[in-house]
Each structure stands twice: as structure tokens, then as C-alpha cells.
Amino acid sequence: MRREFTQKVKVEIIKRCSWGIRKINPHCEQCNQIAHKFEIDHRDPDAMQIDKSRKLTAEDGWLLCIPCHNAKTKTDVANIAKAKRVEAKHLGARRPRQPMPKGAKLRGPERAHEGRQSLPPRQIYEVER
Questions:
Q1: What range defines the domain where residue 84 resides?
Q2: What is the pTM of this model?
Q3: How many domains does the chain have?
Q4: What average pLDDT is seen over the chain?
Q5: What does the H/E/C string look like for the chain?
């Protein structure tokens, strides 16, 4: 289950990122550009956290402009998927093999042997005469 930031923590993050005398126009914490539209994102992906009982603080999140958020999300999704694959491999879980559908054609190395005659079995030991 994904944890969300509380309204109080979101306000704290926005205040931290505000520049100027009037404390308006928050900036992106990654590219330092003014962020007219922004997202508040987890610094470390929430799916990668082991202890989800701890409350989220302002240090756990950062303010990102939409392009930076999209780029970070893309890398986070790939990292999370890889972590799940590594964990499944470590635990010995594998996807079940699916039977080949009827009428399917062979591909790859199996196809190279189609139509060839098999050789007679070789004798391993010499026969005494």
C-alpha cells in the first residue's frame, strides 16, 4: 500500500522550495527551475521501503516539476520491477512454463533440426571379437 503525504507535510515541502520576498513560485528541487505545475514525490520510491509504519516527513519528499517527475517515475518503475525480479529469483519463484499452443511453429535452434535424419546411436565401449 502506497503511503501519501499529509497536507501539513506537503505545505512544509512547498515552503522549503519557495523563493523570493513573497515566498511564491516554488522551484523544482531537481532542476531548480520555477515550477508552475509540480508534483510532490517520494525521494526514495515508496514501493522500495521496507518499514512502512514510519510516518512520512518533509525530508522523505521533494517538489518536482512535471518533466522531472515524469523522468523520475520512469526510472523508479524500472528499478522497482528489477527489484521484484531479483527478489523472486532469490526466493526461487519462477513463472510457470506454458505449454506450446497447438499448431505453433518452432523457432530458433529447434527449427534448425526439422527434417533431418537422426544418426544411429554411437557405441561407447569397444566390442571384443
A1: 7-91
A2: 0.64
A3: 1
A4: 83
A5: CCCCCCHHHHHHHHHHCEECCCCEEEECCCCCCECCCEEEEECCCHHHCCCCCCCCCHHHEEEEEHHHHHHHHHHHHHHHHHHHHHHHHHHCCCCCCCCCCCCCCCCCHHHHCCCCCCCCCCCCCCCCC
